[in-house]
Design brief:
2 domains; seven-stranded parallel sheet; three-stranded mixed sheet
Length: about 325
């Protein structure tokens, strides 16, 4: 049986990093969390005896190699501001150089559906053409190709795990974040529409156990895999259920594509959302049967429970802020 080495989470301060770290710690595995600054890592992981904290400069391969020293597997979770997607490929190029120099055996990239472009089938399987029609999709495609080419060259074993949109307790970079905040406060939730088209969301705490299992599944590497959500649901349904938990009727402010364009005159984030708006009008639904065939059944949190847990987390945040 293969010895299981240490896993490092690059870009660990966010919700995905915390989900994976929780899964590693739950089975008694030591892990390393790596980020640009120590303070947020200390806040998130300082009390976990399984966590080792390290910092890095992702623009410096020597710093990357030092942060990766002694790791068997690296999980790449590095985000960039939504208006700086051009930095994805060069950051990955430098990270790969550092990981290879450090002798890391495996890399898992947590990816998105952006490289597919518009859905040509439903649901979308891993052999769907990668034909992005957006700038962000092309940047993510370049990033993925660097990862997959490293595997083909034999530099290290790599895997791309694609996720749909996600939500969950404390997940701020989500289409649904404003929904839970609005439900708790009794204010109008700011949403991006249309909100009546069936969409797919993965509950972020469900991601960690899947990644933990993949880090010890050698046959998973050298490919792309999907992790799908629990099924389709509309944003309006989620908002209705969230407000019901507060004993309120939904109050929603929905920004469509035209509104995003107008807001984008003053704010770069809505402006950057315009080109990805097709994912709301024509969403991609993922097929994860290949992943299930590889690692077995996957526990997925039903929407009612995920909405409740997200709502309760927003309540705690509101109480702490007050």
């Amino acid at each position: 049986m293969e010895a299981i080495g240490k896993t490092g989470l690059f870009g660990a301060a966010g919700a995905a990093g915390q989900s994976i770290a929780a899964a590693l710690g739950a089975v008694g595995r030591d892990y390393r969390v790596i980020g640009r600054s120590r303070a947020p890592l200390e806040a998130a992981y300082g009390r976990d005896p399984h966590a080792e904290i390290a910092t890095w400069n992702p623009d410096d391969p020597a710093s990357i190699a030092a942060a990766a020293a002694g790791l068997q597997t690296a999980v790449y979770l590095v985000g960039v501001p939504y208006d700086q997607f051009a930095s994805h490929p060069p950051l990955m190029e430098k990270t790969l150089a550092g990981l290879i120099a450090a002798g890391v055996q495996r890399l898992i990239l947590i990816g998105t559906v952006y490289p597919y472009g518009r859905a040509q089938s439903r649901p979308v399987t891993e052999d769907h053409p990668r034909e992005p029609h957006t700038f962000k999709g092309r940047m993510r495609l370049e990033q993925e190709n660097l990862v997959l080419d490293a595997h083909r060259r034999g530099d290290l074993d790599t895997l791309v795990l694609r996720l749909p949109d996600f939500y969950g307790p404390g997940v701020e970079r989500s289409l649904l974040h404003g929904t839970f905040e609005g439900a708790v406060r009794g204010t109008r939730a700011q949403m991006v529409g249309p909100i009546d088209v069936p969409h797919e969301f993965v509950f972020m705490p469900d991601v960690g156990p899947v990644v933990e299992k993949l880090t010890r599944t050698p046959e998973a590497f050298g490919r792309v895999l999907h992790l799908a959500g629990v099924g389709p649901i509309t944003q309006r349904e989620i908002a209705t259920r969230a407000y019901a938990l507060a004993g309120r009727k939904p109050k929603l402010m929905v920004a469509g594509k035209s509104m995003l364009r107008m807001l984008g005159l003053f704010d770069p984030i809505p402006r950057e959302l315009v080109e990805m708006h097709y994912l709301l009008t024509d969403p991609i639904m993922l097929d994860d049967s290949a992943l299930r065939a590889l690692i077995g059944p996957i526990a997925k949190t039903p929407y009612d429970e995920g909405i409740r847990l997200s709502f309760e987390a927003a309540q705690r945040n509101q109480t702490a802020a007050a």
